[in-house]
Amino acid sequence: MHAGCVAQPSSGALLSSPKVQVEENVLHHNEYETIVILRPDLDDATTYGLIEKLEQIITTNGGHILLRDDWGKRKLAYPVAKHQKGHYTLIAHLAPPQLINELERRIRNEDGIVRFLTNKVGDSVDVPVRMEQMAEQRRIREEQERLRRERGESESDSDLDDDDDTNDESDE
Known about the structure:
Elements: H1 3-7, H2 13-16, H3 18-27, E1 28-38, H4 44-60, E2 64-80, E3 83-95, H5 97-109, E4 113-126, H6 127-171
Antiparallel strand pairs: 1-3, 1-4, 2-3
């Protein structure tokens, strides 16, 4: 028997078991990344309102948000709907496969979104474990950003001191 045959049972007996169904729906989802490009002429409140609306669609339909990464306004490779720029946002999330159809349907109905792409990153991900991993990654990322800011401030302070020393020596 091939591994592919096990993943797709031929009879519905396995799926009708309540214990298996609950474990599959609650503990295991697929992992996705959805990138949306919003119109650049939208104000910040509208932009973030649309992103929050997408996140709400995910969470109310049984999904879990892992990460929201706002990439800001960037130049598009080619004009889309007469726009040269777009506001990019990445949403990493865990969701059952049925949710993606609903999410993409609602994205298509939004006038403020000019393009989107959903990539499947992982199959049958254990939700609690992945949520813990993402929380740890988020904590590490915030710590690195904090250290980078501190180094950036201290480097700029030391650069000013070095510049003053250089100017003092050249004046003599």
